[in-house]
Design a protein that fits this description.
The complex is a heterodimer. Helix content of chain A is 71%, strand content 5%. In chain A, the strands form four sheets. In chain A, strands 1-2 form a two-stranded antiparallel sheet. In chain B, strands 1-2 form a two-stranded antiparallel sheet. Classes of the chains: A mainly alpha, B mainly alpha. Chains A and B meet through helix 3, helix 4, strand 2 and helix 15 of A and helix 3, helix 4, helix 5 and helix 12 of B.
């Protein structure tokens, strides 16, 4: 295999594995703020117990997120040096801002959150939870900003020619608020909230099935379902606006999402199916006019097909692959709405316990957002191919000049082995913590937290 | 913001130096504690060592991430050349850092002996290998690496493992071990504290031997460094300051003023990084043998606009970061006590 394919495999491997964890940190971060906030407000010890338990889970996901995140930052330089030279002036500042504004905040206050239980008062602890949550969200902001530059570059100009050409910033805020960054950020954050919420839902439903820690499980489940349902519904809105943005700014990608070859008004939306790339058509049930309506708010407006958006097949992404990933994401998105509405209704009706099938469904729901997040990012990144920076630099032109195939193979093998080990250990420890469950002793806060409580009473 | 006639390239040379010095001072001690980890056989003592860095190692590593990000933004050509040129070395560094991070997190989660022993070794070896590779990278930058006319690395992985870079690698390990031992001394009490006092002497001797050898080798074999020193004799004052700081460490340890010893160790690091920076300036990566291909603060830099934006980001962010980092160190001051949340 050539260096290009190998480098792409390496990036896919490391980014997919990494991206299992940050969404969990972002989502759980939000839920921790809610739990600690409820504790501060109601003084109910179960919230303290919940905060303690979920903090431990958070720490587990955060540790792997950090460890695998450093790899990502290094990889731009190690494998994509030409890309780094080309975009460093623009892209680098977003990454540096992420370090200064997000990572310091998150890692610093995580120390207080994890180890500060007996050292700080309740309000400071709550503040620490807020800062960790904020840090996690800041990092999403900057990384989506950086990635959006690759999708819809703006606020820059090209300086130099040939080997020396590079993008230089002209307007920082135009770069930050590129045409796609706000929509994509909202979409990414909703996905992250879903990841965190459905992890909480899943573990709580498991306890209810096993009739263990019932007060803890019910209270956690309520918070998880509320956040999960809200995020799932919001996801519908952010998904729609993101797709409209894609239609406007990256027509090739949208055409690949839907397998649309011929530009046509009244363009149909394919529910599921298969793209026959050879004969340039889609096989599967379609709703006529729906794609035009969704993309441009009117069935009469034509949607640009691949034949016009990218006449040369060298300028197209792999169409069927992109189509399948995109449709998988959308299908799971609707599934999550259905599951959370069902869970919500049965929960408030009080009959969740009798419906074990639903509890089982909730236990499995944790996989949904993870799969959809992965599929969505795959669709977004594969759909941009063959460009590494849309319209400016091809992926094949972004490689490191001095890196050889055998070096990349070595790194793939090393990272592959380490990540397999990491994943095994993560699953083992997560399972261990879930089996162990919340600590009954945590129903009685100790240390400075307890002092604050006595004063409050 | 408009910075007028301020020389932004030099400011960023300085700021990158500050970030990497901060990294050395902070992650240096937790890498050092890792390198010392296997010297005690008792589980309880290993846990205390681990928990002395428990709340802070994560934040310390962020200095590396931010330093890398700042290098990417301010001097993209250096970032691209060094990271792609040192490919296998950096992949190894990453694997070592991952192993180490995960070992800290997982070691005490299970009571089995084989489990703890496995992660103990992972933690210690990961720490030593990380320190060594960081030092080797520094050594190559000081020695100079072969660059072609496009500023691309023209050597191989093995050519990076020359005697001088390796020596700087070992010196870095010894420096971090000494630094880590002093930090651990501040955070411990009782039997382990006394044990550490013994280790520190050995660490200091190990470091001084390495440091003296490296200095001699630098003056003898790295002509550009020696020439810079001859041109600017005042640089010797920094070297003297460094030696005074090192000499002060055993004195403070003897007087049982552990935190002063730690400050001395930090001062020594600042002096060494300062000397390194002043001898390199304005170069960032020296090309050896063809010096004309070197990357410096002008031919490797981003546009003035980006350097200005980045300075605004740094001036807004860094004071806030310093304020809460100090508060967090303050919250966790004092000796380590194990509780149920400990590692």
């Amino acid at each position: 295999m050539d260096v290009l394919t190998l480098s792409r495999i390496q990036f896919t491997l490391t980014i997919s594995f990494h991206y299992l964890y940050p969404p969990l940190s972002i989502g759980l971060g939000l839920i921790l703020v809610i739990m600690e906030g409820m504790w501060l407000k109601t003084h109910k010890p179960v919230y303290h117990q919940m905060a303690r338990f979920w903090t431990k889970i958070f720490a587990l996901t955060f540790a792997i997120g950090v460890a695998t995140g450093i790899v990502m930052e290094f990889e731009f330089g190690t494998n994509w040096a030409t890309y780094s030279r080309y975009v460093g002036d623009v892209f680098g500042s977003a990454l540096a801002a992420e370090g200064i504004f997000a990572f310091f905040l998150e890692s610093g206050f995580l120390a207080v959150l994890l180890f500060g239980w007996d050292k700080v008062g309740r309000k400071v602890h709550f503040f620490a939870a807020c800062m960790v949550c904020l840090g996690a969200h800041f990092s999403a902001i900057w990384i989506v900003v950086a990635n959006s530059f690759m999708q819809t570059p703006s606020g820059f100009h090209i300086v130099g020619e040939g080997m020396k050409a590079r993008a230089e910033i002209t307007d920082f805020w135009a770069m930050v608020f590129s045409p796609s960054s706000v929509d994509r950020l909202a979409h990414t954050l909703c996905g992250a909230w879903q990841s965190g919420a459905f992890l909480v839902v899943s573990v709580s439903a498991w306890y209810l099935l096993k009739k263990k820690h019932e007060e803890f499980a019910l209270t956690s489940l309520r918070i998880g379902l509320i956040v999960g349902l809200t995020a799932s519904l919001l996801q519908l809105v952010t998904g729609h606006t993101s797709a409209q943005g894609v239609a406007k700014n990256q027509p090739v990608k949208l055409a690949a999402f839907e397998g649309l070859y011929r530009t046509t008004p009244n363009a149909p939306l394919t529910l599921f199916g298969w793209v026959d790339e050879k004969n340039e058509k889609v096989i599967g049930p379609q709703i006529p006019g729906m794609l035009s309506f969704l993309a441009h708010n009117s069935a009469r407006i034509p949607v640009t097909g691949l034949n016009d958006a990218a006449p040369d097949s060298k300028d197209r992404p792999p169409v069927n692959f992109t189509f399948q990933l995109f449709h998988l994401m959308v299908a799971i998105g609707f599934g999550m709405i259905l599951i959370s509405i069902l869970g919500f209704l049965y929960f408030w009706h009080g009959s969740l316990f009798e419906n074990r099938w639903l509890l089982w469904l909730l236990v499995l729901s944790v996989l949904g957002p993870q799969l959809a997040n992965q599929a969505g990012w795959f669709a977004a990144e594969v759909g941009r191919q063959p460009w590494i920076v849309q319209g400016l630099l091809r992926t094949s032109e972004g490689l490191s000049a001095v890196v050889k195939a055998n070096m990349v193979v070595t790194s793939i093998l090393l990272f592959g082995a380490v990540y397999l080990l990491l994943f095994a250990v993560f699953v083992y420890l997560l399972n261990d913590k879930i089996q162990h469950g919340p600590d009954a002793a945590d129903l009685i806060p100790a240390g400075k937290l307890a002092l604050a409580e006595r004063k409050n009473r | 913001m408009n910075y007028g006639s301020l020389d932004l390239n030099t400011v960023w040379f300085l700021l990158i130096g500050v970030l990497f010095t901060g990294y050395a001072m902070l992650d240096g001690f937790d890498l050092g504690v890792g390198a010392l980890h296997l010297f005690t056989k008792e589980d309880q003592e290993r846990r205390i060592l681990l928990n002395s860095i428990g709340p802070v190692w994560d934040g310390n590593e962020v200095w590396l991430v931010t330093g890398g990000g700042a290098l990417f933004a301010a001097f993209p050509n250096v970032y691209a050349t060094v990271f792609s040129g040192f490919y296998l070395a950096f992949v190894l560094l990453l694997v070592a850092l991952i192993f180490r991070a995960v070992a800290i997190e997982f070691r005490s989660k299970q009571p089995m002996r084989w489990w703890r022993r496995m992660w103990d070794v992972g933690f210690s070896v990961g720490s030593i290998v990380s320190s060594l590779l960081i030092g080797v990278a520094m050594g190559n930058i000081a020695w100079g690496i072969p660059l072609d006319e496009h500023g691309e690395f023209a050597g191989t992985f093995l050519s990076l493992l020359g005697p001088y870079p390796l020596m700087l690698g070992v010196t870095t390990v010894s420096l971090f071990m000494m630094h880590g031992a002093i930090y651990a001394l501040m955070k411990t009490e009782g039997e382990l504290h006394e044990k550490l006092r013994g280790w520190i002497n050995n660490c200091i001797i190990f470091f001084i031997i390495c440091y003296a050898t490296t200095t001699m080798a630098t003056l003898l074999y790295v002509p550009q460094m020696a020439a810079r020193l001859r041109e600017h004799p005042w640089l010797f004052s920094i070297a003297v300051l460094n030696m005074l700081a090192i000499a002060n460490i055993p004195r403070e340890i003897h007087l049982e003023r552990d935190w002063r010893a730690f400050v001395s160790s930090c001062v020594s690091m600042i002096a060494m990084m300062g000397l390194f920076g002043l001898e390199m300036y304005p170069n960032l990566v020296l090309s050896n043998p063809c010096a004309a291909n070197s990357l410096d603060i002008h031919n490797a830099a981003s546009s003035q606009k980006t350097l200005g934006i980045m300075l605004t980001i740094a001036l807004t962010g860094v004071p806030i970061v310093l304020a809460y980092t100090l508060s967090i160190y303050w919250i966790f001051r004092g000796k380590v006590k194990l509780d149920k949340m400990s590692y």
